[in-house]
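Q: What would this chain look like folded?
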Amino acid sequence: MTDYTIIIEDAGANFAAYAPDVPACVAAGDTVEETRRFMEEALALHVDMLRETGEPIPAPHTQAAIVQIAG
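A: My prediction, written as structure tokens:
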């Protein structure tokens, strides 16, 4: 199993997600949870397609962290 970092953003009317390590793989949904699920499915399908076509599967290297600042 490979762990990819995904970024979920509030896109106004919905939420959008992407994986910095997997270009061109995106998803959108009505809620954060739905977007996360759709992105997981999109990544699985994308990796399957790369395998089928013999293209390299990107190695994960991006990390995300939450930092707190006084405000």
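The chain is about 30% helix and 15% strand.
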